[in-house]
Every structure is written in C-alpha cells, then in structure tokens.
Amino acid sequence: MSEEISTNVLRAAQRATRDGEWNASPPTSIQEMIAGVRLCRRCGLWRQATQGVPGEGPAKAALMLVGEQPGDQEDVAGRPFVGPAGRVLDAGLERAGVARGDVYVTNAVKHFKHETPSGGKRRLHKTPDAGEVTACRWWLDAERRLVRPRVIVALGATAALGVFGRATPVGRNRGRAIDVGDRARAVVTYHPSYLLRLSDEAAKRRAFAEFVADLAFARGLAV
Fold it and tell me: Nearest 10 degrees: CA dihedral of 146, 147, 148, 154?
C-alpha cells in the first residue's frame, strides 16, 4: 500500500510540476508539494542547486515563517533554516516564546541561487530576482492553501515580495498586521541573515530585540 501511495504522490507531483506554468493541477497534499518541489523546473535555478528545498512543519500550523531562499547548508541538507541564519531564527523564536516545532517554515524561492568566484570553492549567495520569486510563488501559494496559517511572517524583503506579490519594504512595514486574504494576516520583519551581517554590536542587539518583538507580535496574532 505504501508503494502505491508513494507512486501516486510522485505522479501527482510530476503533473503539478509539468502543468505549473499554467497554474493547473496544484498539489493537493503536503506530500505532493514536497515531491513537486524536488522535481520543480519552473525557473532555471534548479540547474545549479543540489535540490529543491520544500517547507517543513505541522500540516496545519497557525504560524508560517517565509524566508528568502535556501542557503548553502540548506541546499545540501534539503531542509530550510538549518545553517547560521537558522540558528539566529531559533534563538529569536525561543526568546519570543514560540516553539519551532509548532510553526511551518519555508522560503519564497525553493532553490539556492549562488555564484562561485573564479578559482574558489565557496558558493556565495545571490539574491533571487523578481521573475524567480514570481515563478516560485506558485509553490508558496500552494503551501498557504494546504497549511492555512492564520499569520505569515515574511523574513526580509524577498520573502515579502513572495508573500504580497509586490515590493514591501521591511522598515516601513514592521509592527503592522497586514491582511493577505484567506482569513490570514502577515507581519514583516528582518531576515535572520541580516542580523548576522551587522558588524556593530549595539546595532545587532537592537535589531535582534526588534526581531524578537516582531515574532512575539505574530505569535499573539496567531492565538
């Protein structure tokens, strides 16, 4: 029976990936969505990535966190937020009183976009462009339909573009509950990697405190 289910899920994922360009045959389960992201060819980023990285978390979560894209470690592991930014996220969630196991965590773009300098081995992050975010929004919308979160937290500007479908600057939109339809609201805050890049310790502490406050605000909305 399990082999039959797996085959059916894979076939459904193949249909979703094939037809995704026309927004037809969307995945009908988390399992189909996961398999479809692994197979996705909706934009060219799959060619340089190790694998597509789907979201993870409870099938029905009140709170969904959306990042930008998988990083180097996420690309290898096939899981979101397992690298340095993930550790910052975990620390912020703990301070905000949110258990990571209770939230659904994903990214606006499911493949790692990067460049490797000539002669180097380290893969350096590149920000996805608007076309790549738009192509991958089909999967993000599918995750929203399946998980049905009450609150979505957009971590950074690229995530906000994926969630809202338009540029939504972080600085001007923090601390607000923004209606995104389907009885859900969204909150915009910093991406954890932004906190890692801050060199001034006072600025880093201040930004982390704001990050925690935003997560706590989202937690309160989700109750």
Answer: -120
Can you tell me the distance from the alpha carbon of 33 to that of 35, in angstroms, rounded to the nearest whole number? 5
Where do the domains of the chain lie, and which CATH numbers do they carry? 1-39 (no CATH), 51-222 (3.40.470.10)
3-state secondary structure of 43: coil
From residue 204, give the alpha-carbon distance in Å to each of 12, 164, 197: 45, 27, 9
pLDDT tens column, 57-97: 999 999 999 999 999 999 999 999 999 999 999 999 999 99
Residue type, 177: A
Specify the DSSP class assigned to residue 181. S
- Is residue 100 within 8 Å of residue 59, measured between CB atoms? no
As given in the structure block, the two tokens for residue 91 are 């620390």
